[in-house]
Amino acid sequence: MISAIVRTAITGLRRDRAALALSFVLPIAFFSIFAMVFGSEHDTIPRVHLIVVDEDRSSASRDLVRALEREGSLVVSTHSDAKRGQATPADYTAASAEAAVKKGDVPVALIIPAGWGAHPMAFGPGNQEAAKIELLNDQSDAIAPQIVNGMLQKAAMMAMPASMAREGMQYTEKYLGTFTPQQRKRWQSNLAYLDQLQKDRDTEPAAHSASSSGFASGGIIAVETRAVVGEHQNKSLISFYAAAIGVMFLLFTASGSSGSLLDEAESGTLDRVLSSRVTMTTLLAGKLTFNTLLAFAQLVLMFLWGWAVFDLDFFSHIPGFIVMGLCTAFAVAAFGMLLASLCRTRGQLGATSTLLILVMSAMGGSMFPRFMMPQAMQKAGLFTINAWAIDGFTKVFWRDLPLASLWPQVSVLLATGIVLFAFARRVARRWEFS
Question: Residue 143's closest CA among 428, 357, 368?
């Protein structure tokens, strides 16, 4: 009898494709996502996009920039993308680099100040003469500045042997006495040899190794770190988690609420409604409106709770919150309507929505920040509602950007909602002709 019950349960599971996928596909999908994000963290360093501004234009600064460009764990940009009508792209300036970090285009920027090449090394009593390289960063990414600082110290040690020797010679003469002509001649010969080694190294192809050697919290180059996002106020990642968790549960709420369409179809209520003056388009639009308002109310409650309990700066960002909240609610409501139109039963809707929403949330940044993911996964995450919604809320609450900067996220979310609703309307034709 037990074996017969087991065979019956297996047959039922095989027929329920949604439950089968939930049992076997979802664990494999989650394992694959987490393995790709964290599986190789001990062997490689995540590639960091970095802007470098060389205001010094000395041989030492050029050597340093070339060494940074050869680092496989960095993606270095010294100029912005060419605009329409421009023959050549403009080099980054300190102002444009800081603006890029504030906008979230890159997590870190390095500013090499004028005069740095005269005293590039940060050793010596007092170290009053060494100019400091400025490291601009976004506090939401705590990993990137450490990687860049470590690679900077490594690049300086590997790329500027002649500069190090000259600096050592200057300090030696300053504090221990001047060299004799013979000693000075030998120093010049050694410096010429080091210069030639540097030229030979510059002609070699760039290395693409992402080894973690050379990391240090301090080093031979003086670095002054400044956070350009969250610099003047005590911000936290509460807004990120409110948006990330909020969007994920909005998807669950919208899918569950849209399931009323299946309940009405099963009970016969849908046939009676459609036999009246209400069309399927009107019915779906009404349910879409209700689900949008329900999702927006859920977001309001989430952020108000963050304001009341976790000191989230909510009321100073009301305009941006309303824009992003309504667009996000519209997109998730349309997603729920499409799932309800595609599924045949409540059980199928529950299993399918759980599978899709959890995978979307993992890839879209609701479970951990997307900047921790490999580049391929970051791009794949852009196919989810979560990623665009979180990026928009981050612009509003973390970066304090104006409403005009939200147009990419708003456009994608609205277009997604319209397309999903159009598909839901087309699939729902089966109820009209049943």
Answer: 368
